[in-house]
Structure formats: structure tokens, C-alpha cells
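Hypothesis: this fold can be encoded by more than one sequence.
Test: take the C-alpha cells below, design a sequence, compare later.
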């Protein structure tokens, strides 16, 4: 996911155990298109049927409250796809639809880390955080060449797309 969502927490019990999760939900029931001549997004009809909802459990979960107070939790490993048949646990989105990432902090009831499996937030003691500035339109191709360049330059997984003539000796 680009750009990456990063969060920090405070006010947690130091010895408490917490899982940090993300899900991404539709903002509305509309489909959008990009108008190049106006350089903006326009409504383009009714939304496609929603993709199956998935929770992404941060791979370092569970954390202690002490750890969460001292570090920023980054969701740089979240993978998005438009393939609703995905079997790899990626978050499935419909292209040209608007979405809102949500961060969930779940208090772990068990001290055993091996059994961390959260599939229904309603059954867990949790708090959800929503950041309206993180709303985005899912696309399969960027609508602006400058954004494409920014993603390639910023994404550690896009090394094969970079122009090797721009790299320093160290980067090569």
C-alpha cells in the first residue's frame, strides 16, 4: 500500500498485550473516473459489489503497551489487490472506488502469542481509529505520471522499475 499508514499510541497499560490490525472499508456506494482535462475525480455510477472484508493483523502483533508507546507501527507490508479470488490474505478492493483505512487496537485476552487469530472484531475488546485524511481511490494504474514516479522511487519492492542510470554507485 502506498503511501504507507503509520500510527503511534499512548495511554496504554505497560504490561498489557495488544494486537494492531488494519482493514479498509468503502466510503460510499459510488464508482469514480478520473477526468484528465479537469484533473479531478468524478462520480461515474453505482459501486460494484463490495469485495470480501479482510482484517490485516500487523505481523509484529501482539505488542506490549510499553513497546507501542515507544515505536511507530507501520503498515508497509499491507498488500492490496483487485483479485477477489486472492488466497494470500491480501486486502481486496475494487478499482475506481473510494476507501477508508481503519486501524484497530485489540486488547489480547490471552498471554499466549501463538494463538493470535482475530477474525471478528465485535468479539474482542478493541478501539477503532479513523483518519479522514487517509481516504483514497483505489486504482490499478496511476492517473498521474508524477505519482507513478514517486511510487517507484519510494517503494522498496519496485526496484526493477527504476531507471538504473539515475542510481548512485552505492544504490547499484
Amino acid at each position: 500500500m502506498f503511501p504507507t499508514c503509520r500510527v503511534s499510541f499512548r495511554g496504554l497499560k505497560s504490561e498489557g498485550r495488544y494486537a494492531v490490525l488494519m482493514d479498509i472499508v468503502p466510503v460510499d456506494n459510488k464508482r469514480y473516473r478520473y477526468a484528465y482535462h479537469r484533473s479531478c475525480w468524478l462520480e461515474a455510477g453505482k459501486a460494484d459489489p463490495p469485495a470480501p472484508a479482510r482484517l490485516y493483523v500487523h505481523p509484529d502483533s501482539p505488542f506490549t503497551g510499553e513497546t507501542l508507546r515507544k515505536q511507530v507501527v507501520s503498515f508497509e507490508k499491507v498488500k492490496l489487490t483487485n483479485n477477489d479470488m486472492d488466497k494470500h490474505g491480501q486486502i481486496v478492493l475494487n478499482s475506481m472506488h473510494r476507501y477508508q483505512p481503519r486501524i484497530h487496537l485489540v486488547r489480547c485476552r490471552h498471554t499466549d502469542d501463538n494463538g493470535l487469530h482475530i477474525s471478528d472484531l465485535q468479539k474482542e475488546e478493541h478501539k477503532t481509529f479513523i483518519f479522514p485524511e487517509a481516504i483514497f481511490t483505489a486504482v490499478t494504474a496511476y492517473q498521474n505520471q508524477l505519482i507513478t514516479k514517486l511510487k517507484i522511487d519510494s517503494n522498496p519492492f519496485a526496484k526493477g522499475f527504476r531507471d538504473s542510470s539515475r542510481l548512485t554507485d552505492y544504490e547499484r
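The mean pLDDT is 85. The longest strand covers residues 17-26.
Hypothesis status: open.
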